[in-house]
Amino acid sequence: MSTSTRLLLLLPAWASAALLQTPACPGTAASNPRAAVRCGASLDPAEYDPEKGGLSTLTTERPEGSHGTGYRFMPLSSMSKEPAPALVCIAGAYPGLTADQLLAPQALPFAPAGRWNYHVLRGDVCSTGFVALPGSSLLDSHPNTVAVVCDSYSLGLEFADGQQHEVLALIDRSDIAALDASQHDDQTFYAFADEAGAVQIRWLATVPAGWRILGRLLYAQMPYIHRPGSAGGFAEDSDEFEF
């Protein structure tokens, strides 16, 4: 009889079973070959400090009082991978906008998807201001876009409340038709400069003599307008209901 066998006979039954089932370190559990066994990762009670330790005792050192130390965690918010909100220069108000005013602002670069940009806004950059709009892949792909504040009536737009409202016309000044008039599309809305230099936002079958294309209308951003009488007997039917 071997020495190890004599030792097992002398131990209580529960201790013998524990010795047979506990794998040596390092190694893996016999019942699950993929279960890694962790050895030597004990925490010294004499060195434990809840104000400094936190997760850093098990990973890497972090600055004292920072996220994950002392078992304290900062509230966090992550950007989505969608296009970031866009800060668009305002060229002016329409009607009454001139071609020079439309072409004057220097467009700000849009932030990459999921990120943001920093801008130091000075009066000489865009004296007419900026407007923040929801980001979109369409805006991201047309970085030389400016906003024109329009009277909804001047664009032929109507709202459910029967009132006039301000609408933002997003004009891409780098459209190919602005560089080459032969690329004009009679199905597209453009910002034209007429013979007097005034801006006209519309479509034209042909570009009149003396007119030029300043940019293409990407889209008109309309505000949310509550529809009168839209509220019914159920909250879910309301335009302002949120789950």
From TrEMBL:
Residues 80-218 form the Rubisco accumulation factor 1 C-terminal domain. It comes from the Eukaryota. Keywords: Signal. Transmembrane segments: none annotated. Residues 48-67 are annotated as: Disordered. The keyword Signal applies. The keyword Isomerase does not apply. Residues 1-17 form the signal peptide. This is Rubisco accumulation factor 1 C-terminal domain-containing protein. It comes from Haptolina brevifila.
